[in-house]
Amino acid sequence: MKTSVDVAIVGGGVNGCAIAYNLARLGCRNVAVYERGCLASGSTGRCAAGVRAQWGTELNCRLSLASLHKFERLPEELDYPDIEFKQGGYLILALSPPEMEQLRKNVALQGTLGIPSRVVTPDEARRIVPHLTAPDLVGATFSPSDGHCNPFKVTDAYSLAARRLGVEINTATEVLGMDVEGQRVVRVRTSRGPVSCGAVVDAAGPYSGVVAAMAGVGLPVYSQRHQILVTEPVAPLQGPMVISFSLGLYCQQTPHGSFITGIGDPHEPKGFDTGHSWEFLEDLAEKIHRLMPLLTRLRIVRQWSGSYNMTPDAQAILGLAGQPENFWLTCGFSGHGLMQSPIVGEIMAQMILGQEPTINVGRLGLGRFERGELLLEPSVV
Ligand SMILES: Cc1cc2nc3c(=O)[nH]c(=O)nc-3n(C[C@H](O)[C@H](O)[C@H](O)COP(=O)(O)OP(=O)(O)OC[C@H]3O[C@@H](n4cnc5c(N)ncnc54)[C@H](O)[C@@H]3O)c2cc1C
Predict the structure, then answer these.
(1) Neighbours of 362 (CB within 10 A)
(2) Which of 82, 139, 318, 353 has the fewest beta carbons closer than 10 A?
(3) Handedness of CA 35, 39, 45, 51 (dihedral sign)
């Protein structure tokens, strides 16, 4: 393992690997990733991997649309056979008039940014997903280019491409501490020895707060369990991801035929618990029955959970911490860190190298919390 690197990235999830690849692509090759488990063993490998551009704030629309275009070309860019990117669209349900009103506003905004979404009637929604019943459906929005991918393959693709460009990727290597001298982190202390560094990136997902504390940085983040399950595979039945913000529910059919579905629990305590519960199964079954009763006939193969890394506005923190002056943050993604990773990887690499970022993410800086300038997004699960 190298004992000196220009950039030390803590976390081998999709974001750590995407940043590593983009740094190397832009010419900074003395880069190392430190991952305490195996790649994608954090939130990345536990997520639903939905990719949508249908958002309610301009910045999220821009970031997600740019990422979506990158996902479309990722196999070619990274020379990787298949990331299982299926663009079956996202059907977003409105179960009350106020919810429909918000979705209409979202679609109006999305139209100005080139996102091909549209408002659909309940009947049209049921034509798009024939097993959708949802008696209380008021309307929906649909964008055909949204979709989902395989998060393991995306991370693998980035890490292999990064390695080919000279990045050192260390698995089973935990960052245990950091040495700060003056205004800079000069060394990361890993379970395999110390490494001096020019800059550090905190891409530790649910543990971003713990890693930031090693550099003396306090982050307003916390982690929260989200549960999810996969069913037996069946013949193709559902094209789009079906999602309800008011129920906190999403449901998709993978190319393999399995359904992956999950639901948030508003009463979930903060913490690092990644266990799973019977209550989740009951709650999900009841809500799936309300929306798409046919699916309750499917047998469940496995349930699991992962953590959302949350901020006060459920939006990522991107940029410098301030002090130490070479400590970069890429965390707090809530439930959408996979879908934004292709553009986030590029933007973070550009900022670290002092280049103009493709999209200005100044509004996602850490300072927004102190200034009270939260970026409130109406459309999250
Ligand atoms: C159930 C569920 C469903 C989701 N669905 C979606 C979705 O549909 N679409 C979407 O875009 N997002 C979704 N998300 C969110 C998404 O998973 C995350 O935002 C994203 O994976 C974050 O990636 P990351 O690389 O930043 O973090 P992670 O994947 O968590 O990677 C961080 C890595 O850091 C490592 N680490 C931590 N501390 C240390 C240390 N001290 N030393 C070394 N390594 C360390 C961890 O082992 C981990 O592998 C979902 C999340 C969950 C839990």
Answers:
(1) 11
(2) 82
(3) positive
Q: How far is CA 197 from the centre of its chain?
A: 27
| Residue 315 alpha carbon to ligand 1 centre in Å | 14
pLDDT of residue 287: 97
* Residues in contact with ligand 1 (CB, 6 Å cut-off): 10-16, 34-37, 41-44, 46-50, 174-175, 203-207, 211, 226, 228, 262, 306-308, 333, 335-339
CA–CA dist 213, 11 (Å, integer): 15
Res 256: pLDDT:
94
Q: Which helix (H) or strand (E) holds 148?
A: strand 147-148
Beta bridge partners of 225: 307
Residues near 248 by Cβ (< 8 Å), separated by ≥ 6? 263, 264, 265, 266, 381
Burial readout 4-14 (b: 16 or more C-beta within 10 A, e: otherwise): ebebbbbbbbb
The rounded mean pLDDT for the chain is 97
Q: What global pTM score does this model have?
A: 0.98
The tokens of 40 are what?
A: 């994608």
Q: Which sign, positive or negative, has the C-alpha torsion 25, 325, 204, 332?
A: negative
Structure token pair of residue 246: 């008011």
8 Å CB contact between 43 and 49: no
Q: Which amino acid is at 106?
A: N
Q: With contact defined as beta carbons under 8 Å apart, do 242 and 91 qualify?
A: yes
